[in-house]
Amino acid sequence: MGRPILAIVGRPNVGKSTLFNRIAGKRISIVEDEPGVTRDRIYAEGEWLNNYFNMIDTGGIEPNSEDIILSQMRTQAEIAIETADVILFMVDGKEGLTSTDREVANMLRKSNRKVILVANKVDSHTPPNTIYEFYELGLSEPIMISASHGYGIGDLLDEVISNFPDDKDTGYEEDITRVAVIGKPNAGKSSLINKILGEDRVIVSNIPGTTRDAIDTPFNVGDEKYVFIDTAGMRKRKKITENIERYSVVRALTAIERSDVCLIVIDAEEGVTEQDKKIAGYAHDNGRAAIILVNKWDLIEKEDKTYLKFEKEVREGLPFMTYAPILLVSALTGKRINRILDLIKVVSNNHSMRIKTGVLNDIVGEAILMNQPPSDKGRRLKIFYATQAASKPPKFIIFVNDKELMHFSYARYLENQLRASFGLEGTPILFEFRERGK
């Protein structure tokens, strides 16, 4: 019994993404006055009157286009239609019926799904004369809305939830691990997700920048629930010329902020670049669990100990991420892909780990006995007490006599002792040093 799925389909530039953002209550899909901006299926959660559902925003359907991107957009829309319980077929109420609308309607009639016809860009209760043209499609009576102004959205959602199947669960879903897939353009992020999931869930193309949005792809492994967030590749700032690509960088950073685990994808042929360091730095600074995936490993010529040498180069390129495991993989051949999901579970559990206060202080006490705290000008650092203040990532408050005496190297020593005792692979650790009584 899954959550019902609502798909929003139609030709390009009729306002699908604007409606999607309106229902989601936040700006998720990129909205730009340019046909074809939403290229992939964009996933988000929607809610109306305590009924929860998943939404899919699709790239505009151009039924007869031979353009490689438009063709894949059509394929993505077809997949969305196949998985949806209810379909919102959006048309432009101002422009009226077009030949493309007719062809999309023909596709939808073959879907055997509930189709709700939505006429967008109608800003008043008085319908324009163009509305009556849509009756010839033989679908439901068009519901008139203005996605940009919010007119008619409530009536539309009433109709949507009344058509969800009875065997679907509209309750709130918790305990989902969100995994952001981040990296430079064309590093193979979408290909990796498709390989892990075993199906083409996101568009794959060798044109850098194909993925412009952050695309949420839910999936389950046994009882574990996950969402992959495939982000637009982050380019260097000077190379960002389109408004859309500027949005994409912001969207990728937002994806990191709302994720639990970041898969940092690096191109094996290029190695760790300055841009890779910045991208990984975003994840580290936001305290996210991380796994470093070096993709296109199949293209590297192998010699004796090539794996170890490459792993060492990655460590040297990302010295602030010594806690993150490294996998050298190939989305093309499937090399080591089967290890990724298990590793995600490990680092996610470590990221949310909570350590009992008594156990924590035992470990800190043993660490002090093995290596005395530093002293300065006759004053020695004293550590009184430690407690865990938060998780995701684990944050520890350590009470001391004088926090100015806490040297960076000793803080690193304490971190290493905690990692040795509890593992904590894949997650950063935060320390806050407080003077007792403050």
Structure commentary:
Strand 4, helix 3 (99-109) and strand 5 (114-120) form a beta-alpha-beta unit. It contains eleven helices and 17 strands. It has helices spanning 16-24, 68-83, 99-109, 153-162, 189-197, 243-257, 274-285, 306-317, 340-351, 357-370, 408-422, and strands at residues 5-9, 42-48, 51-57, 86-92, 114-120, 143-144, 176-183, 215-221, 224-230, 261-267, 289-295, 326-328, 375-376, 379-380, 383-390, 395-400, 430-435. It has 438 residues and is α/β, with parallel strands linked by helices. The longest helix has 16 residues, at 68-83. This is GTPase Der. Residues 4-168, 177-352 form the EngA-type G domain. GTPase that plays an essential role in the late steps of ribosome biogenesis. It comes from Senegalia massiliensis.
Detail the topology: elements first, then pairings:
Layout: E1 5-9, H1 16-24, E2 42-48, E3 51-57, H2 68-83, E4 86-92, H3 99-109, E5 114-120, E6 143-144, H4 153-162, E7 176-183, H5 189-197, E8 215-221, E9 224-230, H6 243-257, E10 261-267, H7 274-285, E11 289-295, H8 306-317, E12 326-328, H9 340-351, H10 357-370, E13 375-376, E14 379-380, E15 383-390, E16 395-400, H11 408-422, E17 430-435
Parallel strand pairs: 1-3, 1-4, 4-5, 5-6, 7-9, 7-10, 10-11, 11-12, 16-17
Antiparallel strand pairs: 2-3, 8-9, 13-14, 15-16
Helix pairs in contact: 10-11
Keywords:
438 residues; 3 domains; KH_dom-like_a/b; six-stranded mixed β-sheet; GTP binding; 11 helices; alpha/beta; Rossmann fold
